[in-house]
UniProtKB/TrEMBL annotation:
Superkingdom assignment: Bacteria
One Pfam family matching this protein: LolA
InterPro entries: LolA/LolB/LppX, OM_lipoprot_carrier_LolA-like, TAT_signal
Protein's recorded name: Outer membrane lipoprotein-sorting protein
Sorted UniProt keywords: Lipoprotein, Signal
Signal peptide: 1-26
Length: 214
């Protein structure tokens, strides 16, 4: 998988998940009652969302920028479409996650349960129980949550920014082990509307053809 595709999966999958594979509660920050209340509100919001779609903007550590649309249907399904000139597509169909690079004509597939996306797409999300919360900052307009990351997809930290009044996720930043940041902002989101099952289809035959060509 290319570094761009790997960074894409980390930034979008891990961050939107509000918790990464391999996170452990040991060593988590002691939280005040206000901070715990805000985390509970975030959990409640995410668990009320069964479908969601909207736009996103991604900023890479070297100043690169990409935009696109995302579609989510819990449990198990999500799709990220990147606008041209990007050639990356990410899709989860309920059992697997595919990252396709149309420029290189490659596709990487993992079991969904082995990726950070499993948290975002789970039936129930519990931020405080499933993640090591390093800090929580509560301001009049924003709530910022920093999670320590020790996952099979890398080490670093995840910073999540929520609207203080609605608890909607607005932006996140993934900081990798080398200290590089990848940030994603989402907007024009709509929740719990109808969705198209065809959005969440993985072309498994493409992988068979890819292996035969190698």
């Amino acid at each position: 998988m290319t570094s761009i595709a790997r960074r894409t999966l980390l930034a979008l999958a891990a961050a939107a998940a509000v918790g990464l594979a391999g996170l452990a509660p040991a060593g988590a920050a002691a939280l005040s009652s206000e901070q715990k209340t805000k985390l509970a509100e975030v959990n409640s919001y995410f668990n009320s969302v069964k479908t969601m779609h909207g736009d996103f903007i991604q900023f890479g550590p070297n100043g690169e920028r990409a935009e696109g649309k995302f579609y989510l249907a819990r449990p198990g399904k999500i799709r990220f479409y990147y606008n041209p000139p990007s050639k990356v597509d990410i899709v989860a169909d309920g059992k697997s996650v595919s990252v396709k690079d149309r420029k290189l004509a490659t596709q990487d597939i993992w079991p969904l349960k082995e990726t950070p996306l499993r948290f975002l797409l789970a039936e129930r999300i519990n931020l405080e129980a499933d993640a090591e919360v390093a800090s929580v900052s509560v301001e009049p307009d924003l709530v910022t949550v920093v999670l320590a990351d020790n996952s099979t997809f890398g080490t670093g930290k995840l910073t999540l920014i929520f609207d203080a009044s609605t608890t909607e996720l607005k932006q996140w930043t993934v900081t990798d082990a080398q200290g590089y940041d990848t940030s994603v902002a989402i907007y024009n989101t709509a929740v719990n509307g109808p969705t198209n099952p065809k959005l969440f289809t993985i072309d498994y035959n493409a992988n068979l053809m890819q292996r035969r060509g190698n």
